[in-house]
Amino acid sequence: MAIAAAISLPLIAVKHRSRSPASSSLWFSSTSINPPKNLPSVGISAGCKSNLGVFSSMSAQAPAKASAASFLDHKESGILHFVKYHGLGNDFILVDNRDSEVPKITPEQAVKLCDRNFGIGADGVIFALPGINGTDYTMRIFNSDGSEPEMCGNGVRCFARFIAELENFHGNKSFNVHTGAGLIVPEIQEDGKVRVDMGQPILKASDVPTKLTANKDQAAVKAKLDVDGLIWNVTCVSMGNPHCVTFGTESCNDLQVDELNLAEIGPIFEHHAVFPARTNTEFVQVFSPSHLKMRVWERGAGATLACGTGACAVVVAAVLEGRADRRCTVDLPGGPLDIEWSESDNHIYMTGPAELVFYGSIPL
């Protein structure tokens, strides 16, 4: 696998990790990058053999074993060190911010870093901050548009793997994370997947929040939503962040999600007047009571390959509408997640992968 650094925000160094022993290469374009002078030596590798070509003003060394902790120990002024992870293609820039309660970059800088043509490219920037109120860590996120969501399911799995590498955790390990959605407890499993206790879903319509009228207890379930003259049946769920889940319209109750034009319809749902805090929207196709397929338009990020909180909301909505069991496999464009809505404690449990992509540094 080759990674090319050809961006106007000059990338200084990247470490790439491969699962296989096959060689990989990393190169820099001298026409696109202007590295600062007197840059200290940075190792460029991560557990795989690399062929490396760099500027003469830079030096590189390949450590026997690279880690996020050792890489992020570099403290050059004006340089942001980061690690890129993805959860089923939902990708994030992870920043070690454990030494401060204030994020190291601003939302405006996050927008630039997330740009896929002129920046690093990501759906958001995630900060690992000190824990508060008795928690081990705090997680904050800036979306690719600079907004700050309460939580992100794929992001918290990436966060868990990032913390495990920073702290050199091995085997099964769980910890408490403070988020804008409350306490979240991820557990790293022996197979490397992350199981996350996502807490209880919020169903009270006014707390989601939505202005749709509650029609089942205090929840909006299969409520009618007029979107540009077309009536959709929607169920509203909050996983600490708002979700609008639909299985179809009044005239078509069997969505074929691959046929949807998300770029056209997604923003209309997101900014609909009945969602005062905007909303994430999940379009769902039912294969069986234990197998669902979804596409998502995320608030602040647009169409993404996966949304963990969205998959949780989908299962809750499917159960409330009598379409599915409490344990389901949810297929997303980036791959499947296992979701369980436990009857015993009313908590949602999400299990899925999180993968390291590369290490990097960039001037701010």
From TrEMBL:
| Species the sequence originates in | Salvia divinorum
* GO MF entry, a single one: diaminopimelate epimerase activity
Cellular component GO terms, alphabetically? chloroplast
- PANTHER family noted in UniProt: DIAMINOPIMELATE EPIMERASE, DIAMINOPIMELATE EPIMERASE, CHLOROPLASTIC
Pfam assignment, any one: DAP_epimerase
Protein's UniProt name: diaminopimelate epimerase
**Keyword annotations:** Amino-acid biosynthesis, Isomerase, Lysine biosynthesis
The protein's annotated pathway: Amino-acid biosynthesis; L-lysine biosynthesis via DAP pathway; DL-2,6-diaminopimelate from LL-2,6-diaminopimelate: step 1/1
Provide the taxonomic classification: Eukaryota, Viridiplantae, Streptophyta, Embryophyta, Tracheophyta
Entries under InterPro entries matching the protein: DAP_epimerase_AS, DAP_epimerase_DapF
Q: Cross-referenced SUPFAM superfamilies, in alphabetical order? A: Diaminopimelate epimerase-like (SSF54506)
